[in-house]
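Trying the structure run again after the queue cleared.
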Amino acid sequence: MSRSHKRAPKTKIVIGAAAAAAVAGAAILLPNANASQDKKSEALDAKPKAFNAESASDVISQLASSLGEAFGGAWYDKDQQQVIVNVIGDNNNVDVAAVKSAGAVAKDAKNSMKSLKAAEATLKEKATMAGTAWAINPKTNKLQVTADSTVKGAKWDTLQSTVKSLGADMADVKRSAGTFKTFAAGGDAIFGGGSRCSLGFNVTTDSGDPGFLTAGHCGVAAEEWSETQDGAPVATVKDATFPGTGDFALATYDDTATDAPSTVNTGDGKTVNITEAAEASVGQEVQRMGSTTGLNGGSVTGLNATVNYAEGSVSGLIQTDVCAEPGDSGGSLFTEDGKAIGLTSGGSGDCTAGGETFFQPVTTALEAVGATIGDAGAGGGAAQ
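Done. Tokens:
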């Protein structure tokens, strides 16, 4: 459908939006065994470095790769500016030295990421039902399993027995107020097919045209989206994923001359310029902008989360304690310094009682739809 629509200035998207040092695994090849031992001793005595959220994400990624099966998850302590890394194994001095050489803090742990992911697979097979969710919590070195108010009777029994079958100290179960639901609703913001959602981030498509990302469940609800209720369409959905391996959609502006900078309007005339997309890390401070509740903040509590909505199961999400309400779907999750992190998917609770919320990682969405964002594109490369 071809339409010409020049966006007003107000629509300029008001988007409610490592280097780990290698430990001397080859130390035994050095001619001086005492020198080798001294290096390891120095590493074990190394003091923790101060990290910011971005450098923390880098070092976590690199340590996850270098530690292999000894890696049991990691998180960022924003108050201490430290990276905490779970290290598995009784005889793990080499691994601990690697962690400390990278400036992180090593913590003895029981469950490897491999075993935690195997437990996730069991939950997916036996406990996939509407109203449940789970994600790895590196702070507890366990799976955090959450059940909303609809999970009761036989469903609750099944969930409990499945968690018990995983073994002791593998998972915790908690209740969540309300019901897990996507946050689309009737109202105002971006409108399509009787639904109201929030615009996430402006992007540039692989063909060079302007577009935006929003939630996939918004994209499958309507093909055309407007800026006002019952207004003329200004954008058309080109790609949408929901449910399944994500909750994201790409819409392109019908007028290819639309001015659509990667900026988040946080209210009161203030904006945050989005420079690039970035991966989330547990403990990271984030902000969310949505058309219903505006700007709210919190932190990342889990990664690669699976949530089971009434419409189906969605995997690969970010879990946070940031509140959201109907109409906030698709809205921006970002950092104060301009990193695009996620798109609002859904959750339980509201901005009065709180609750769990889930977000689609922006990096995954950009890669899937072939779009770039901000100055650094989809993967942090050169501007396009």
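Residues 1-36, 376-384 have pLDDT under 50 and may be disordered. Worth checking whether this holds up in the mutant runs.
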